[in-house]
Amino acid sequence: MSNSIERFGLYVARNFLDAQECAQLVAEVRAAWGGPATVYREGASSLIDATLRRTTRHMLSKETTERVRQLLLARMKEVGEHFGLVLHDCEDPQFLRYQEGDFFVAHQDGNTEQLQFDHLRVRRVSVVVFLNRQSETPAADAFSGGALVFYDPYVDTARKELGAPLSGEAGMFVAFRSETTHEVVPVTHGERFSIVCWYK
Hints:
The protein is of the alpha+beta class. It has helices spanning 2-8, 19-31, 62-83, 118-121, and strands spanning 11-13, 34-36, 53-54, 56-58, 94-98, 103-107, 125-130, 133-134, 142-145, 148-151, 164-166, 173-177, 181-184, 187-189, 192-199.
């Protein structure tokens, strides 16, 4: 993990959420309505493409969404200083559930002219908060597979050995520049719960 942090200049805060907060959010996600998460591609007729991204976005209450957003905003200045950026706001957090076989192919979130959508280009820093832990062996409160993997610019992302995986820990906050290429490899066991958000 330290290799990924140093190589990509990640900002990592363990215990951003405590065990009780993670458990409560996982329970809320399980109980909330959800639908396929979107993916943006130039010229695409649909925002859903299960060949590129397969995960479920759950719509939690306005109260929970705003509470999590305020926690993220409270961390914004420190994150901006880490990356040498002045950040002004963050998008509403998204609550994601990856089931067995779910994944998100290598992509960038923003801050690059490669993206054709204005609301993506203004993203400066991406955030992932893990709500449960990754484990090499199956466990009731964990998932296997589903690593967050980072790639250097211009690397052939089909060569998986060139990626730098980061193992998830419950409550861990990970931030990285939005132009960083990254993916979520397929979950092989259990369910992966996370929050994603973007600072602008």
